Amino acid sequence: MDGNQEDIRLMEKIKQGSQSSFELFYEKYIRFTFHIALQIVGDRTEAEDICHDVFLEVLQKSSQYKPEKGSVKAWLAVKTKSRSLDRLRKKKPLLIHKLESLDTEEEHPLDLLFIHEMERHLIIDALNHIPEKQREAIYRSYFQGETHQEIAKEMNKPLGSVKSFIRYGLKNLRKQKPLVKWVEPERGWKQQ
Question: What are the residue boundaries of the RNA polymerase sigma-70 region domain, all occurrences included (predicted)?
Fold first, then answer.
């Protein structure tokens, strides 16, 4: 019996109320889910809470799993990622906060840590909807790790202009509806 068939059998037994099957399932997947949650939220206590929520949902709503849509492991991974991102979304707007905290430093190295916490394509798409000079300054600063002075030299602009490009670019990023929805879901879509 392959691993997914065994998992499907466990899920069926969990659905029927088998505590021992749930315990086996838990032991098999707790490290897997914890690793996913910890990678996303970066905090052990938060990751433990997320795992608790995920396994409680497995116990209470095991009928949500549909074998025709993929493996149990993949279903669990998606559920864990979703709960982890939900947890991040409830906090202060993550992208804007991290970009702004980097922007307050006079000189800063490339910080790719925040990229791993959110969908890269969402950021790139939002950047494509702001003015070109703002996009270039933000990209050079946060993605290429250039200092404000280096950016000013490369763009052939005064240092103050580069700082303005970055500041106004961040403000324009806040207005991007898909990005706003990602970082501020409790507010929903803003009406303009």
Answer: 25-92
